[in-house]
Amino acid sequence: MAITKKPVSLILSAIFGLFASAVLANPTTDSTKVTSHEKHETHAVAHDSTHAAAAHEEKELTPAEERKEFIQHHLLDSHDFTLFSYDKESGHEKHFGFSLPVILWEDGLHIFSSAKFEHETAVVESNGKYFKIEHGLIYNSDKDGHIDHEAHLNPLKRPLDLSITKNVLMMIIVGFLMILLFTGLAKSYKKHGSVPKGIGRFFEPIIVYIRDEIAIPNIGEKNYRKYMPFLLTIFFFVWFLNMFGLTPLGVNVTGNIAVTAALAILVYLITTLTAKKDYWLHILWMPGVPTWMKPILAPIELLGTIIKPFSLTIRLYANILAGHVVLMSIIALMYTFNNVVGSGLSFFLAFVLSLLEILVALLQAYVFTMLSALYFGAASEEHHHDDHH
């Protein structure tokens, strides 16, 4: 088993995958109720101070608008981990969850708790700098909370955000969970003579399947072993994150395009750095075609190497995002109909779709792993041109 021979490579692949996407994660608020005051206030910074009065006018959203905002906020990241919230009789919202560390670089390092933002209502002072958060993005501001309009359009005018957001926290949790599971499985092999015990009996057939049905057929007996740690890591990493996304925790890690892009970039780097000379020969100077066509085909083939990770990014992101949107929209219909028949049918549809999403969570991990193995196989394949031509 490859997992018992290269546990260090497996762990390092998981950790590298986690932190490669940490900086790219897209934060946003986790609040489940947004007023038009908040929507107006975002746009008010782009206009004259004459519009400030209108920005502070509070008006509750309609139930349909509130549900739409709830779905949108569920799909995005946040700087705190809110499990649930409810409206108090005083009209204020009560949040249950915990804060996460905010780590910024703006003329020096700034570290503080996200609780200081008070759910996007407060300005935070740190080492003489003022920061304000709007829709999950942290901006420089003055002590009154006024933000430079250009910062909304130019990310370079915002502080460098290295915070541990909700999505980053879930990736760290999944990474440690994988380390515990598979180091335990490797020890079980050594202790019981290549016979796993406990939860290892569930994971062993999956590992064997990835080796025998994905890695070996697509990469080959000669080269598959060096890619096994990454293939196992990417499969279980994506699968576990997909499954956590179906829980009431409100996480949507693989539905974040920055995360899927980071995973796809890892596949691209491994493919490029481990590719043999025949791989580049078939891209830059394809054998078997007229010489005058080779300069024409080379740019097309090079573009194809970039399209491959792009397709990996979009496929995983779009499928997971679409599933979350449809599922939450059907759940929202229960409150829209507000009767036994309509709400009952919506509940039944949501239940069936939830079961389907469990299958999709596994299927998307399989597809990502399969395509990665195909790319690795193309990079490591040896061609015998004398035999073919």
Percentage of residues in strands: 5-15%
- Low-pLDDT ranges: 1-58
Q: Indicate how many domains the architecture comprises.
A: 2
Q: What class do helices, strands and sheet pairing give?
A: mainly alpha
- In helices, the fraction of residues equals 55-70%
Q: How many strand elements?
A: 8
**Cα distance, first to last residue?**
38 Å
Structure annotation, total helices = 14
Shape: globular
Cα radius of gyration in angstroms: 25 Å
Largest sheet: 3 strands, antiparallel
Q: Give the overall average pLDDT.
A: 78
If strands are numbered along the chain, what order do they take across the biggest sheet? 4-3-8
H/E order of the elements? HHHHHEEEEEEEHEHHHHHHHH
Characterization of the model:
There is one protein chain. With 389 residues, the protein is mostly helical. The chain has two domains: 241 residues, no CATH class; 139 residues, no CATH class. 59% of the residues lie in helices and 11% in strands. It contains 14 helices and eight strands. A three-stranded antiparallel sheet has the order 4-3-8, with no helix packed on it. Strands 5-6-7 form a three-stranded antiparallel sheet, with no helix packed on it. Strand 5 and strand 6 form a beta hairpin. Helix 12 packs antiparallel against helix 13. The longest helix is centred in the last third of the chain and has 44 residues. The radius of gyration is 25 Å and the shape is globular. It starts with a helix and ends with a helix.
